[in-house]
Amino acid sequence: MKIVLARPRYDTHVITPPLGLGYLASFLKKKGIECVVIDGLNEDLSNDKLTERIARERPDAVGISCVTFYYKETVMLSRKLKNIGLKCIIGGMHPSFCPFETLKEAKCDFVVCGEGELPLLELAKSDFSGKKRIKGVYFNSEELAENKGQPIEMANTVENLDELPFPDWKQINPNNYPFSPHGAFVKNFPVAPLLTSRGCPFDCSFCASPSFYNRRIRFRSPENVVAEIKLLVKYFGVREIHFEDDNLTLDRENAKRIFELMIKENVNVSWACPNGIRADKVDMELLRLMRRSGCYSVSFGIESGSDEILKKVKKKESLEIISKAISMSKKAGIEANGFFILGLPGETKKTINETISFAVNSGLDGAHFDALDMFPGCKLWNEVKGEELSTRWRKPPQWVPEGLSKNDLVKARRKAFLRFYLRPRIFMKTLKKIKLKQAYYIIKRSFDYKVL
Asked: pTM, whole model, 2 decimals?
């Protein structure tokens, strides 16, 4: 049996190895199933070209990864594959919360809700017949229509993450990816993304991750994590690691052991966590250990410069805690960056200015500002107007707080970027980070966010 795993091309300034497809490929290969990964984004393949590439493999089925950003492209690719008679499975964050809409619009055979390893294996064992009921797998749109409104069932998961083989790095080789990493800037190249855990136990109302993982988190052992880093360094020449966890430092002892092992085994890489860590889950001792093990940059999910808004979205952090974490990071010799969301519930022009002022005066080395995008699976999506927006996927739907307009948020984002980055010290420091190979992607990013 052969399965092709694909990611469609879409408009983005971040092009990194698709870890999810890498894990699926290695897991299924371990079970005796041939897997071919075709990354249409990295190879710059239109859906027509991608369909031709997939067809040449003569697969028994095609699995497509999907998040909201490229739902439209996924739908079109699925339809093209179905037109040439191929079986099609769609999985990922977006279809996990919209399985019915995805089945109907993409004309696919199956939607997998939740993590894909176990359900995809069960589908393969059943020869993709659709005759066997598999937890977390939806395939009958009529049956789904009758049960609309019922809770979506997520698939079974691999509880011991050490049992999963490392991603199929040969097929998602970091050396074959452009200088367009998550987080925009890097210290060394090539860069490999890496996960030490899956899940999130928190309940931030703007995030879908807690629902996807049922507010649970599982960790890989430190030995398993460091073994993968060493493999990436030895066989792929990787010089930098980007930890993409939602909660890298949540289990302090587990994180500490990872960093200690990196030092003990002389793993010579720089590393960063561009996906963000919680400010309340670091301390001076841990940050100094992170620095010694190669960390040069951390990002914090700050979200707002208003404590009231942080309470509204159930962030469970205060600006005092966040400020302390930024200060400790700087003292430890680690660059501190912050993520901010403009347009959260309760946002006003006053709180927007408070957020910008906090970012400018916080001591951060870098900041990213974006308007709130609501995605299926987050509490705000369900509470505010998710159902009304669910048929509009030309871009992620955007909710605007009462008293503000979409244009207010666009202008506020531009104002925030310019106020933060046009300060001489920050401007020069940022300019020095840009490497020639990534200039195109930095310029594209600036235009995408309407900064230029």
From this structure: 0.94
